[in-house]
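Q: Please design a sequence for this.
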């Protein structure tokens, strides 16, 4: 992987499936769609943790953190970024919730 590359992983969504190897996770700034689902059954996160390539604290944030600006994504043009999207309808809800929060509107 060259400096500045972004990995957007959207296929593997079980503990046994993955799209990137341990080295990719180890070299990158790691982000996920949702922390709760990433640590509960996503091979691209669980397998590098199990092997010791990364730890849970190496997952720097989720979509909520990134969209709200709580955490920075890419910090320089040479950063390698790794975003694991486990998929699902929750992403639509998260996106809507973030938009409503930005607009100052409450969900009922």
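A: Design:
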């Amino acid at each position: 992987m060259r400096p500045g590359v972004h990995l957007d992983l959207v296929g593997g969504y079980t503990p046994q499936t993955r799209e990137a190897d341990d080295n990719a996770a180890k070299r990158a700034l790691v982000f996920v769609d949702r922390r709760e689902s990433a640590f509960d059954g996503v091979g691209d996160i669980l397998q590098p943790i199990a092997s010791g390539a990364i730890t849970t604290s190496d997952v720097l944030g989720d979509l909520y953190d990134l969209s709200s600006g709580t955490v920075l994504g890419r910090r320089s043009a040479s950063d390698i970024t790794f975003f694991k999207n486990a998929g699902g309808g929750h992403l639509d809800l998260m996106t809507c919730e973030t938009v409503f929060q930005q607009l100052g509107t409450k969900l009922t």
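Q: Thanks. Anything notable?
A: The CA atoms of residues 1 and 14 lie 24 Å apart. The domain at 6-103 is CATH 3.40.50.720 (Rossmann fold).
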